[in-house]
């Protein structure tokens, strides 16, 4: 099989760098979230458990192992986010932090845009305020 054919068979998870790539993305993303005036106050001071859950969720969301479901059950992400006031402005801010993280970890621009497009659905679905 040619390298080009193999590239077309990669999952999104693999294209993002697999476990290592998702971990780098999460580690780049959360300092941005914590520093953001709209987002930072929603998160606990000890961000480590949040980062671990995000790593598991994004791994599963992008086609990798179902880590989140294995550890926490069905994602039910909208329900899990209901306790937090999520506005359209916060959804946009979250996506902005993710865009910065995707660029910072050095992904190709087309892959950055594809990942953001895929994340827009959940980000806007969580709006509850």
Could you explain how this protein is built, in words?
This protein has 129 residues and is an all-alpha fold. It has one domain: Globin-like, CATH 1.10.490.10. 68% of the residues lie in helices and 0% in strands. The mean pLDDT is 89.
How many domains?
A: 1
CATH homology group: Globins
Radius of gyration: 15 Å
The helicity comes to 55-70%
CATH class: Mainly Alpha
Task: Give the topology string: H per helix, E per strand.
Answer: HHHHHHHH
Strand tally, please? 0
Largest sheet: none
Structural class estimated from helices and strands: mainly alpha
Proper CATH architecture: Orthogonal Bundle
**How far is the first residue's CA from the last residue's CA?**
50 Å
Strand content: under 5%
Features:
8 helices; mainly alpha; 129 residues; single chain; Globin-like
Quick recap of the structure?
The chain has 129 residues and is an all-alpha fold. 68% of the residues lie in helices and 0% in strands.
């Amino acid at each position: 099989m040619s390298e080009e054919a193999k590239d077309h068979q990669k999952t999104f998870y693999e294209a993002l760098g697999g476990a290592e790539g998702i971990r780098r993305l999460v580690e780049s993303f959360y300092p941005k979230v914590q520093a953001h005036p709209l987002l930072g106050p929603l998160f606990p001071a000890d961000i480590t458990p949040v980062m671990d859950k995000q790593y598991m969720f994004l791994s599963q969301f992008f086609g990798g192992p179902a880590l989140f479901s294995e550890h926490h059950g069905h994602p039910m992400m909208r329900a899990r986010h209901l306790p937090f006031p999520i506005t359209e402005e916060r959804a946009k801010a979250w996506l902005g932090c993710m865009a910065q993280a995707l660029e910072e970890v050095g992904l190709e621009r087309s892959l950055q845009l594809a990942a953001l497009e895929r994340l827009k659905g959940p980000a806007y679905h969580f709006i509850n305020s």
